[in-house]
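User: Reviewer 2 asked us to show a designed sequence for the structure in our supplementary figure. I'm pasting the structure tokens here. Could you produce the per-position amino acids so we can include them in the response letter?
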């Protein structure tokens, strides 16, 4: 989540759901929290009962809206206009928390004279390189900072994209000029003010579909949750991330929280709601192609990663906590390669793979479609239903030589070759498919030991309750024994490329009739240990760069601090923040950046909002949470001129992972598409961009346009309606774990789409009848759910209808239906390469798909003939 990472320093949720009880206002946007995160939502309900104002902004009225004090429907894809207007409201009405802003953010810092904003460049920031469709960020730097650091960072980011923490080669940002009066025309505050001047309440009314009066009422309520006595919290989910400017939507919220002084304080922060039990864990110990455990950058192919020394230099700023980068990467290499990792062989650094291009989900499937891949393992995913442009992804699977699927049921992905819509229609003949499919039965979470890392960065241990049935096995079992088989094969093939594989530490103890590897030993390896005596480390502070420590993920160091003390298994909550129940990374800090909960002099902003504070008698930080700060660094600490690392950050700099210790309203380094958010329309939109008419879409986003992945025009008379997708409580993502269960299949038995009463009336559609939803990627049929929960909007003087489509159904299981993601395009947001599924264009036809084949063919083929 680089929207949070580049703003604050870490890409995770900044607090816990329970802390919302301390909020004076809660803004939920990009999320249907009540239905998709009901356990966390209990704290929102309780907060409301205590007097907190809950605001929900969403295209659909949902159970979240029903339990909120205020609901605003808006056009899908117009989020930055709405949030930008909130930022403008704060600035124009002097609602910002000045003392917090001046001391804890980069608002007073002067930016390079070379910077030119989007207002002067018709929607582009300075540094735009049209031939490469990318930015040179040198002009985004602080005045006086060497631009070489930014160019170095640009090279690191180009092949990757996950700047989760904004670390990748930060230039030396701890030397800068400031204007604490916030009046200098080139200070961040004034640039911000000019940048968002266009984002007016009138613009919100005209292009979001939210009345000016409603917007101002919400803006007044939320923006006054600020200052020493009040705070407001923001909750979001994939309704923000799955946009072509998703990272910058999140950046808007992050900027708003800094302006209001709502970060690091009780009841403040941003809850990035994660949709599965361990999605947070899947980015911490990553399933991401360009990130190593603990958000260390994966080495890139090229000069910057030719040696360990160069790689470390590229990723290590002079100041801030990331100065410790060398300790974390060397300890990781020691965890990987053990005794085989020595100073003489760069601790095995050359054995690490390199990023050579786009190895994301989208990149993989496009390569697959082009016949560039032999095989793939798919574990815990069902891309035949869940992937964007699922029809294309199913066709791509037929180009493989082999496919391994690990799941608890036979999914649409494992059965694509014999039961897909393309097979039933005759487009694909199973006899022509050469893909050999292996379906490996997987154990469920109750059938194995391990940890979940949830939304609040909390590791919780779960014990195996029952043995998995039949041949079902855990992920640990599968990977461990597969590794043994591959390593045994490698021993017979003494090529240099196999040296790293054979060097891996792979000596976990096993138990039981199936030789199940110990999950606790894996967690101990992740926690880290000292090489000499295999003693578990108490935390990341003791990790070394000399090869004397091993650690599988530095941010998890401390979860298993000594033998017999698995802190993820603790179940004795001792206080409001839950210390003693599980363990939150880093160092069991429940609210990140909590140094900002105290004034610059170390005293609480107020008694009502105190969290941590400086104990002058004992000379340390204390309070109700583990300080996210060096515990003994006094608030009046002033670093020496040549100080480095954390020693270079003053005692009033809470954002310690940034090289300047500040919250970044302005991102000088680390993002692909600009130092400030800017509104661009989705790839498909019913309107032209009202903010920057000359620049319709995010210039750095990639549409991946090709045959079968085409786009409508913006606007397009053939596809006049806005399409957005969403989840239901009763089904789980692609449906493999829910559509096969009778009680859940009964609750939501058939595919449907939600449309407004006005749309139904205009098209003559009766509630419950079949309709066909069409985009340039495909067509599906669904029952029409005619409901006032979806509002008809007035956008730029025109009536705009929105269509809501859940994406859980497929052709397997008890509850079957057409696949919503067949309608979505494969595209990439520039920072994280996620697809755009929350704001597209479609058409809606009365009747079933089979009855509309000729009309659908006309809509799809007209575009392809034109191309």
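Assistant: Here is a per-position design you can include in the supplement:
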């Amino acid at each position: 989540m680089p929207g949070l990472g580049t703003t604050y320093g870490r890409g995770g949720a900044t607090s816990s759901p329970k802390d919302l009880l301390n909020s004076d206002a809660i803004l939920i946007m990009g999320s249907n929290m009540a239905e998709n995160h009901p356990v966390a939502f209990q704290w929102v309900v309780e907060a409301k009962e205590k007097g907190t104002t809950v605001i929900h902004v969403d295209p659909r009225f949902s159970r979240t809206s029903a339990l909120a004090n205020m609901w605003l429907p808006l056009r899908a894809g117009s989020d930055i206009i709405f949030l930008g207007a909130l930022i403008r409201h704060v600035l124009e009405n002097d609602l910002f928390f000045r003392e917090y802003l001046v001391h804890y953010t980069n608002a007073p810092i002067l930016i390079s004279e070379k910077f030119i904003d989007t207002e002067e460049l018709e929607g582009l920031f300075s540094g735009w390189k049209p031939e490469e469709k990318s930015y040179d960020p040198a002009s985004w730097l602080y005045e006086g900072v060497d631009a070489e650091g930014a160019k170095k960072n640009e090279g690191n980011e180009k092949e990757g994209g996950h700047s989760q923490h904004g670390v990748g080669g930060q230039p030396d940002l701890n030397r800068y000029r400031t204007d604490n009066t916030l009046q200098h025309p080139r200070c961040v505050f004034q640039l911000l003010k000019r940048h968002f001047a266009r984002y007016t309440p009138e613009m919100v009314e005209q292009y979001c579909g939210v009345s000016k009066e409603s917007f101002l009422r919400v803006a007044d309520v939320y923006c006054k949750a600020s200052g020493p006595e009040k705070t407001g919290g923001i909750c979001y989910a994939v309704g923000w991330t799955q946009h072509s400017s998703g990272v910058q939507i999140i950046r808007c919220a992050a900027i708003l929280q800094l302006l209001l002084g709502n970060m690091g304080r009780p009841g403040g922060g941003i809850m990035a709601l994660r949709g599965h039990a361990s999605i947070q864990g899947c980015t911490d110990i990553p399933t991401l192609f360009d990130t190593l455990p603990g958000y260390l950058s994966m080495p890139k192919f090229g000069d910057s990663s030719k040696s360990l020394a160069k790689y470390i230099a590229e990723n290590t700023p002079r100041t801030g906590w990331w100065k410790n980068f060398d300790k974390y990467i060397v300890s990781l290499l020691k965890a990987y390669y053990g005794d085989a990792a020595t100073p003489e062989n760069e601790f095995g650094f050359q054995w690490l793979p390199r990023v050579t291009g786009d190895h994301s989900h989208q990149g993989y499937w496009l390569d697959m479609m082009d016949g560039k891949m032999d095989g793939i393992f798919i574990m815990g995913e069902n891309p035949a239903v869940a992937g964007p442009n699922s029809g294309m992804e199913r066709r791509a699977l037929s180009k493989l030589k082999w496919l391994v699927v690990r799941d608890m049921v036979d999914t649409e992905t494992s059965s694509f070759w014999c039961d897909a819509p393309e097979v039933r229609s005759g487009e694909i003949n199973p006899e022509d498919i050469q893909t050999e499919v292996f379906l490996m039965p997987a154990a469920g979470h109750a059938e194995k030991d391990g940890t979940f890392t949830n939304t609040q960065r909390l590791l919780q241990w779960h014990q195996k309750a029952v043995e998995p049935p039949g041949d079902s096995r855990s992920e640990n079992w599968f990977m461990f024994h597969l590794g043994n088989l591959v390593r045994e094969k490698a021993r017979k093939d003494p090529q240099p490329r196999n040296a790293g594989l054979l060097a891996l530490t792979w000596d976990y103890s096993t138990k039981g009739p199936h030789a199940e590897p110990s999950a606790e030993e894996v967690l101990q390896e992740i926690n880290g240990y000292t090489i000499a005596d295999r003693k578990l480390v108490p935390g990341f502070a003791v990790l070394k760069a000399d090869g004397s420590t091993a650690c599988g993920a530095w941010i998890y160091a401390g979860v298993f601090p000594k033998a017999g003390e698995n802190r993820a298994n603790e179940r004795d909550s001792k206080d409001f923040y839950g210390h003693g129940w599980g363990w939150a990374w880093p160092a069991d800090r429940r609210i990140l950046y909590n140094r900002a909960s105290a004034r610059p002099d170390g005293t609480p902003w107020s008694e009502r909002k105190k969290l941590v504070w400086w104990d002058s008698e004992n000379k340390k930080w204390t309070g109700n949470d583990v300080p996210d700060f060096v515990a003994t660094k006094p608030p009046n600490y002033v670093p020496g001129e040549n100080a480095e690392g954390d020693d270079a950050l003053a005692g009033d700099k809470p954002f310690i992972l940034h090289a300047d210790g500040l919250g970044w309203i302005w991102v000088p380094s680390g993002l692909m598409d600009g130092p400030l958010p800017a509104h661009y329309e989705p790839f498909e939109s019913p309107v032209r961009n009202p903010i920057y008419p000359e620049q319709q879409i995010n210039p750095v986003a990639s549409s991946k346009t090709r045959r079968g992945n085409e786009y409508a025009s913006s606007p397009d008379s053939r596809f006049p309606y806005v399409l957005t997708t969403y989840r239901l409580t009763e089904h789980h993502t692609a449906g493999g774990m829910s559509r096969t269960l009778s009680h859940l299949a009964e609750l939501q038995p058939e595919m449907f789409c939600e449309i407004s009463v006005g749309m139904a009336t205009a098209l003559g559609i009766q509630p419950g009848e079949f309709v066909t939803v069409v985009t340039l990627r495909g067509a599906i049929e669904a029952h029409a759910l005619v409901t006032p929960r979806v509002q008809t909007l007035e956008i730029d003087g025109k009536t705009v209808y929105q269509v809501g489509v859940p994406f859980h159904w497929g052709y397997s299981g008890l509850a079957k239906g057409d696949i919503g993601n067949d309608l979505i395009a494969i595209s990439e947001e520039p920072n994280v390469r996620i697809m755009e599924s929350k704001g597209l264009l479609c058409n809606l036809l009365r009747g079933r798909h089979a009855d509309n084949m000729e009309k659908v063919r006309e809509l799809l083929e007209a575009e392809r003939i034109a191309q």
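For the response letter, you might also mention the following. The CA atoms of residues 242 and 836 lie 5 Å apart. The chain has 26 helices and 29 strands.
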